[in-house]
Design goal:
The chain has eleven helices and two strands. It has 312 residues and is mainly α. Strand 1 and strand 2 form a beta hairpin. Helix 3 packs across helix 10 (262-270). The longest helix has 44 residues, at 8-51. The protein is globular, with a radius of gyration of 25 Å. The protein starts with 7 loop residues before the first helix and ends with a helix.
């Protein structure tokens, strides 16, 4: 093959075409980013403008009502927090342990590959499928009923693949010399994971956990499927407080209580014909968005804080 010799002018023209393509791609990227940000700003601004008049203390401390001016989100935001608490307790230990096992302990064979492929595919399964699965297993088979426990476990199933995948990716990002150095001085595999792998991977793991919880808090389909209430005018019993004459609530009675969550409350209000409830829905939507953004902000802060202490 005969080599082609380019003149100086041709090389300059070639470089100029490359720079022009870079500039076009950069401009296209900025345009797409600006459109996305503009849409988000317009949607959030419209929601805030519509719902700002209802963002008062009473809105957060009142139960749902048939009268729009008296309706609040007390049972909804309390229910969301309790369901997220159960979800985190169920999903985080199992998800992190599964990710560590698959990355550090599991043998590399066809069984492991099938498990890994299925976990990755489960992250893309529609949430309504998890709701139907939970309805059969948690609600009817295990007898948990339409409770906070059923909802928390359902959402835990939903975010479990996300936590497993993020945990594995965080572990893979750790340089091999950390692992090899630990084992070279006589540490066992568990000691290497306990004192090096998991602490160094924690920023990435934490990011995956928060992203999973942020997705779970906005899910509606699986919660509706297992039977969340759309109108609820009481809170789950506080442990060791009197719930009736001479009867105190147990430590875990609240997990078996009926519940509602923010997305259900918003869905209920938007489906009503009275336009006044749309204002309530906009205000509740803003509160839900603030909760999600707060969780993401916490994740970013913790990740930054933990990464500052990692030096390799």
């Amino acid at each position: 093959m005969q080599a082609t010799t380019l003149t100086t002018e041709q090389i300059r023209a070639l470089i100029a075409r490359g720079k022009l393509k870079d500039a076009i791609f950069k401009g296209l990227g900025i345009f797409c980013l600006a459109v996305a940000l503009l849409v988000i700003v317009l949607l959030v601004s419209d929601m805030v403008i519509k719902g700002s008049e209802r963002l008062t203390l009473d809105f957060f401390t009142n139960f749902a009502s048939r009268h729009a001016s008296k309706a609040g989100i007390l049972s909804a935001w309390v229910g969301s927090l309790l369901v997220m608490f159960v979800t985190a307790l169920a999903a985080v230990p199992i998800g992190v342990a599964a990710g560590v096992y698959l990355e550090e302990y599991a043998a590399r064979n066809w069984v492991t590959e099938i498990i890994e492929i299925n976990i990755t595919n489960l992250a893309a399964v529609p949430s309504i499928v998890y709701g139907l699965l939970a309805l059969g297993i948690f609600v009817y088979q295990f007898g948990f009923g339409q409770s906070i426990l059923s909802a928390g476990l359902t959402l835990a199933l939903l975010i479990l693949p996300i936590i497993i995948v993020s945990t594995r990716e965080a572990i893979r990002a750790i340089p091999a010399m950390i692992r090899e150095g630990s084992m070279a001085v006589g540490a066992t595999r568990w000691q290497t994971c306990r004192y090096h792998i998991i602490p160094y991977a924690m920023p990435g793991i934490l990011t995956g956990v928060i992203i999973g919880l942020a997705r779970a808090i906005g899910e509606t389909a699986p919660i509706i499927t297992i039977g969340a209430l759309t109108f609820i005018a009481f809170l789950p019993p506080v442990p060791y407080t009197e719930i009736s004459e001479g009867v105190n609530a147990g430590l875990f009675d609240w997990v078996m209580s009926p519940f509602t969550v923010m997305p259900i409350q918003i869905f209920n209000w938007t489906s009503r014909p009275d336009p006044a409830f749309e204002v309530n829905a906009a205000a509740a939507g803003f509160v839900l968005m603030a909760m999600v953004l707060s969780m993401n902000a916490i994740a970013i802060y913790l990740r930054y804080k933990m990464r500052k202490n990692i030096k390799w």
